[in-house]
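Good morning C.,

I know you're traveling, so I'll keep this short. The sequence:
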Amino acid sequence: MALSLSDPFCVGRHRAAFRDLVGGHIDILFANEAEICSLYETDDFAAAAAAVRGQVAIAALTRSAAGSLILGDGAEHRVAAVPVARVVDTTGAGDLYASGFLYGLTRGLPLPVCGEIGSLCAAEIISHFGGRPEVKLSELVARAGRA
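The tokens, ready to paste straight into the viewer:
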């Protein structure tokens, strides 16, 4: 089962329930830096990443322009953010990252490649207004040589 934490305020308000859910029922966790730090009550991203390690099979932790950190298969993978000319609207960035990541995962691609696909999809969505892609993502991923 996959879960996106989606909101640091919600995580903070229901922290115990989220920790129970993550620790006992979730296989794949998506969270941005603020969300994972809220879950583990720290301002230190490295400490939060260390805390989630072993709680889930895969954790995909996004950090905006700093890219993402994928924890899984006993390894840690750092994935660069895909550069955009200008960030216009971040609505949907986490959702598109997760969808791109899961697209790669369902095709049996290595975790770093899944993260690269997620970053590519997130970059597309933040380059314009609105939470819907303006291009067909499967074509975008294919043009990038990732599918």
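Safe travels,
E.
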